[in-house]
Amino acid sequence: MKMLSDLSDYTKWDAELAAMAQGWSDQCFFEHGNPENTSPFGYVGQNLYIRYYSKAGQPAPSAAVPIQKWYDEASQYKYADRSCSGVCGHYTQLVWATTTHVGCGQTYCETALDNNGKMYSNAWLITCNYGPGGNYKGQFPYQEGEKCSKCDSPGTCKGGLCRDCDLMEDSACICGLQCENCGFTNTTNGECACNCQKGFWGNNCEKPCENTHRYCGTSPGWPSKKYCGRHSSIPKNCPLMCEICEKVEPDFVCEENETPE
């Protein structure tokens, strides 16, 4: 048996997902499933691949083989209406935007079976687990738009993918953020962030500065700013109370292409 780890470093390798994947491959059952979920992810996605031979002793395929097979399903997927003319689930899981970790395992099986009783001789069974999993019904695997325009903090981008890289030392590293509501990008000292106008906040200045939970500033609830450090959800729900942002100026008008003085 052999763990697969020669994957792109844009998605982080997770040892627990890999151990689960290895445990599943070891069962030589070509069907989706998992042993007990011991990963930190509540929902785990999964892709499977099998390569079988007429003779025993054939080498295992490289990790690039199943990944390319799964990605090739893109030709059958239509983003506009999420329709698929064949099999697309491996591709959509592979490119699912909110999946951040992956772990894979592979096993040589003298005999592997699927849930229909089909037998595969001299087979390599590869399992990749993804956390958090994707392929939620009715959802797009990613948002259309400019590459890296919605990267989370620190907002940097390399090779068209959101990635924590160094703007000062790596010429391929860029700040791809597109700030909304007349915010503007700040790359001072290697930062990659949006400076928001009063009245807005968020990674792209896309959120209005307003409390959204009925407990903000109330008792019972979170009556004052001192409660903001008690749980990460409080500042997210009460940005105005927690002074993450300020109220919009009454005479503020967002002009296109506005730049800081």
Automatic annotation (TrEMBL):
Give all residue intervals belonging to the SCP domain.
2-138
Against InterPro entries, the record matches this protein to:
Allrgn_V5/Tpx1_CS, CAP_dom, CAP_sf, CRISP-related, V5_allergen-like
Pfam families attached to this UniProt entry? CAP
Cellular component terms (Gene Ontology): extracellular region
SUPFAM superfamilies noted in UniProt: PR-1-like
Recorded protein name is SCP domain-containing protein
